[in-house]
Amino acid sequence: MPIFNISKEAAIGTAALGVTFAAGLLIGRRYHPALPFGTPKRKKDPLQQYVQDYSLREHPALKKLRLLTSDHPLRIMMVCIEQAQLMANLARLLEAKKVLEIGVFTGYNTLNMALILPVDGKVVACDINEDFINIGRPVWREAGVEHKIDLRIKPAIQTLDELLANGEAGTFDFAFIDADKESYNDYYERCLRLVRKGGIIALDNVLWHGRVLKPQKDDLETQHLHQLNEKILHDTRVNISMLAMGDGVTLAFKL
Ligand SMILES: C[S@@+](CC[C@H](N)C(=O)[O-])C[C@H]1O[C@@H](n2cnc3c(N)ncnc32)[C@H](O)[C@@H]1O
Ligand SMILES: *[C@@H]1O[C@H](CO)[C@@H](O)[C@H](O)[C@H]1NC(C)=O
């Protein structure tokens, strides 16, 4: 989601006060009381709108899933659409066959990737919440790509360890890390082993709504993200680009 828009947590609070706490626990995000609560949804920045108007070529199935997701109280978790398009373009450039999605939600980016993969391509999709996925699954099916999606409903770390134990190190072309923030370093380290040389690891929310500028002592998610940004800056295993797109995305190109 765009950096300068309303924060995920505030929007969640506005939309669904009732489910915020439970869902926050479930998805590994905590509600931040310091954030403006009940902030009305701000109008989109005009330049942001221009970028979308003049660059998006959204597949009808993706549009359908986006509209379905827009009714969900936690819709703010959905990936930024122009970022999804960039990731699909990168995956195509890599001629990707195997990709990893860590954090599926309703499956927008999972579908996005499945649509560009060859018939024998595969998205290993990791999430702990099947209710979210049940929203997107009919659209995956309708788009004729469900067979390319290998869904693993369990903590993502477990799935990544299983893939490694199964001898799949160095076989993935692209990985998107977008689940619970405090596990990002664990996901990153495992992805570095699972992704092949020349492959890409994309990490979402690396700017965390600007909070990385001044991580607060009690804010472990922000601290974790900031420390990981610092680590990746000096990581000689990858070349990197950090983009101020959506909520910030780092692209790590495995050397
Ligand atoms: C920001 S959303 C993912 C958005 C998604 N990439 C998209 O395309 O819209 C984060 C997701 O991570 C999932 N999640 C949270 N903790 C997890 C864990 N330990 N293992 C796997 N998934 C987890 C949540 O259930 C949620 O669906
Ligand atoms: C990584 O970046 C360095 C320069 O910073 C460059 O020489 C090298 O070719 C890059 N590697 C790849 C695989 O792009």
The top-level CATH class is Alpha Beta
How would a crystallographer describe the biggest sheet? 7 strands, mixed
Helical content band: 40-55%
Globally, the shape reads globular
Fraction in beta strands: 15-25%
- The N- to C-terminal Cα distance equals 29 Å
The ordered H/E elements are HHHHHEHEHEHEHEHEE
Q: So, the CATH homologous superfamily?
A: Vaccinia Virus protein VP39
Strand line-up of the largest beta sheet: 3-2-1-4-5-7-6
Derived structural class: alpha/beta
Low-confidence stretches: 1-40
Q: From the alpha-carbon coordinates, what is the Rg to the nearest angstrom?
A: 17 Å
**Which ligands appear in the coordinates?**
S-adenosylmethionine, 2-acetamido-2-deoxy-beta-D-glucopyranose
CATH architecture: 3-Layer(aba) Sandwich
Compute the average pLDDT.
88
State the domain count: 1
- Please report the total strand number as a whole number: 7
User: Helix count, per DSSP?
Assistant: 10
Attribute tags:
255 residues, binds 2-acetamido-2-deoxy-beta-D-glucopyranose, alpha/beta, disordered N terminus, 10 helices, seven-stranded mixed sheet, single chain, Rossmann fold, binds S-adenosylmethionine
Description:
This protein is α/β, with parallel strands linked by helices. The protein has a single domain (3-254), classed as Rossmann fold (3-Layer(aba) Sandwich). Helices cover 42% and strands 17% of the residues. The protein has a 7-stranded mixed sheet, with helices on both faces. α5 (81-93) runs parallel beside α6 (108-116). The longest helix has 14 residues, at 220-233. The radius of gyration is 17 Å and the shape is globular. Residues 1-40 have low confidence and may be disordered. Bound molecules: S-adenosylmethionine and 2-acetamido-2-deoxy-beta-D-glucopyranose (NAG). S-adenosylmethionine binds next to α6 and β2.
